[in-house]
Amino acid sequence: MTTITLDVNGRTVTAEVTPRTHLADFLREHLLLTGTHIGCEHGVCGACTVEIDGEIARSCITFAVACDGARVRTIEGFDDDPLMARLRDAFSTSHALQCGYCTPGQLVAARDLIRRKCLEPDLDIRTEMSGNLCRCTGYAGIVAAIETVAAEAPSVPTLPKERWAGPAPGPGAQPARAATGAATGTASPSVRPPTPGPVPCARPTMPARQVKVEVGPVTIENGETRFTQSFVLEHRAEAVWELMRDPARVAACMPGLALDPPGQDGRLAGRMAVKLGPITAGFSGDGTMVRDDDARRMVIEGRGSDRKSGSRASGRVEYTLSEAAAPTGAPATRVACVIAFTLQGPLAQFGRSDLVRDLVGRIGAAFAFNVDARLRAPDAELAPAELGGVSLMLGVLFGQIKRVLERLLGRAS
User: How do strand 297-305 and strand 49-52 relate by DSSP bridges?
Assistant: First the structure.
């Protein structure tokens, strides 16, 4: 048995499950949340669709142990959601349900679709919803209901378009998108675009100014990787601390990190997306913070897990600000950080000290650059903060190759 703790519909749940228990069975049998239906048990029909850490997923092919630390939302968790209430009304008005078995999954997927893509003028609802099967209605009512709510785009709380996060369409769906109506004998529904509003003024962009980051020795003891890094910002300590005492503003400058507003108990919850070579991971978890305004010191501790790779991480970050002087003699601030973390699972291979040193150096440089840019111009447009990608990994590899060549050339001379 494995002990897991997860947030289900806003309630913290701790339970012991077998490693082979699927999330759908756990929700239905352990928590009695029977609104999540099980149909094909192969991730095809979509009846078991739930929301995990803000993205929809098939609970019948997701292990419960892989959701340790995740936020899960079932159809029961949308009772007070305004968009879901509007969808339920539209499904009823458009006769979009008959036996109702597919309806919970249809509603969860439809809500996700509308929040992500309702502003697209060429939205093809049939293609987007083709990952959810219905045995009764012939889809006409379902499509009409979603089209009705999607047309209310100005009043719909949309999400930024990042990547495909809905059910996968059938084979050849993208090339066949334009021909869907001809194949079914029904014209593909279209969503009228929202009324154009005023064009927002472009925010200024900041010229690049690199910040040198010094990374200390990396040590690994009892599975914990520990290192230090520091950098100097040409800003007064009061201004730097005003930004870095706020976890939300710090997270906005950290590559790959997204932080939820602190809870009433002061606990933090967030997510970090990591792309390292062929591995893509999305850690979600929670943590705590301790802040000392007099000493300008912050300590943040947290733990999280990636449900896709099964990797787990825990860590501690401590940073302290002190007054310094810039090369020009102007007032400056030194930010000294102590970072310690542990990795378990497939991503543990990236805990090797040589790779960690290069990687954290580049991550630290990106963080320092963003903090400096934010202090120089609070309204400036920052580059998207992504952790990983081809450029980051190439930089790490070229850095290692460069050091090897330097050592070889030094020996030859």
Answer: unpaired
Give the structural domain span for 124: 81-171
Count of alpha carbons within 13 Å of 125, Cβ hemisphere only?
Answer: 29
| Angle value at C-alpha 167, between 161 and 170, nearest 5 degrees | 115
* 115: CATH: 1.10.150.120
Sign for the pseudo-dihedral over CA of 158, 160, 166, 171:
positive
Q: Are 360 and 351 in contact (CB under 8 A)?
A: no
196 belongs to a structural domain: no
Look up the pTM and report it.
0.46
Q: Under 8 Å CB-to-CB from 168, ≥6 apart: which residues?
A: 131
Structure tokens at 187: 């014209």
Phi and psi at residue 394, to the nearest 5°: -65, -40
**If phi over 0 gives left and psi between -120 and 50 gives alpha, with beta otherwise, what is residue 136?**
alpha
233 with 253, same domain? Answer: yes
With CA atoms as reference, report the closest residue to 388 among 230, 248, 277, 237.
Answer: 277
Residue 242, both tokens: 């005003």
| 232-261 residue pLDDT tens | 999 999 999 999 988 888 887 877 677 776
Which residues does residue 285 pair with via DSSP β-bridges, in sequence order?
270, 304
- How many distinct structural domains can be found in the chain? 3
Q: What share of the chain is helix, strand, coil (3-state, %, to 5)?
A: 35, 25, 40
Tokens representing residue 46 in the block:
């979509």
